[in-house]
Amino acid sequence: MRPSDFVLYTVTAIVLVLILGPLAIVVLTSFSASDYFQFPPPGLSLRWFQEFFSLPNMRGAFILSLELALGASTAAIILGVLAALFVARQRGQASGLLQSLFMAPLVFPTIILGLALLLCYRIVGMPLLPGLVLAHILVGLPYCFRATLASLQNFDPTLEEAGQSLGASPLQTFFRITLPLIWPGVLSGWLFAFIVSFGELNTALFLTGPGVTTLPIEIFSYLQFEGSQLVIAAASTLQVGMILLVVLVMERAVGLARIVRS
After folding, report:
1. Which of 49, 118, 218, 219 could form a disulfide with 206 if both were Cys (CB 3.0 to 4.6 A apart)?
2. Is 61:213 a contact under the CB 8 Å cutoff?
3. At what angle do helices 128-152 and 56-88 cross, to 10 degrees?
4. Cα separations (Å) of 162 from 86, 148, 168?
5. CA-CA distance, 215 to 67, in Å (whole number)?
């Protein structure tokens, strides 16, 4: 083995341990039969998952986070596709300016974005839930926009012209020609928006309230003020499982490697 290969394998192993190690500890701990945090767990049990679903606030926060992630990521991908189609047809400085505008939520720290939205919502009198939905759409939009734009950059626009020359309307051309060819990018954008929305904490810190609390906020509050770390481990494991389920569905539908390339 060459020294360069040894260094590469070593660095890769360290990165995998740093990423997967803490995650594995949380997942294993969530199945612990102990009354307190202990690793490795002395036995395996589902008691903390039962405890999680027996808590109305945790159960409600989980359902709200799931509904919010599904709705926000779907709205974000619709807006992201429309924005990417428009930008892809622009030339010169206008294209670069529009790309910077749509990618701006990634530049600003989400905690500053949440504070700015809170002040704006207070001025216009925005209700909690619609304001939270709009914030999650805004956070997920750059992923949808960039993934779709990357697919459009490899798309041959003459195919659309050929479809329209044969009598297809612009809407028919999009659904029959454009969308099937850029579908991996659209799907990858939706996937990233869903994951970001489902785990969003910083922005939601400013925008949640009584009756409108997402799972990350509930986990943070429960860990800080109320109860057992093992319930939090079970909640975190459910989050990981939900994300893995979405990734598995995407793998079966399109192929993860194709999504990542897009």
Report:
1. 118
2. yes
3. 40
4. 19, 22, 9
5. 11
pLDDT digits (tens, 9 = 90+) for 141-151: 888 888 888 88
- Give the relative orientation of helices 229-253 and 179-198 as an angle to the nearest 10 degrees: 180
Q: Look at residue 38 and tell me if it is in a domain.
A: no
- pTM confidence score: 0.79
Query: CA-to-CA distance for 46 and 53, rounded, in angstroms?
Result: 11
pLDDT at 15: 78
Give residue-wise pLDDT tens across range 113-163.
878 888 888 888 778 888 888 888 888 888 888 888 888 877 767 776 677
In the structure, how many helices (H) and strands (E) does the chain have? 13, 0
In whole angstroms, what separates CA 164 from the centre of its chain?
Answer: 35
Peptide bond into 40 cis (omega under 30): yes
Query: Can you list the residues of the chain whose pLDDT is less than 50?
Result: none
Among candidate residues 235, 259, 233, 262, the one with its CA nearest the CA of residue 247: 259
Question: Within a domain: residue 22?
Answer: no
Residue 154 gets which letter from DSSP?
T
Whether residue 18 lies inside any domain: the answer is no
Residue 228, domain CATH: 1.10.3720.10
SS3 content of the chain, % helix, strand, coil (to 5): 80, 0, 20
CB 232 within 8 A of CB 222: yes
The answer to whether residue 218 sits within a structural domain is: yes
Closest CA to 241 of 198, 211, 201: 198
Please name the residues in contact with 185: beta carbons below 8 A apart, sequence gap of 6 or more: 147, 148, 149, 150, 151, 152, 262
How many domains is the chain partitioned into structurally? 1
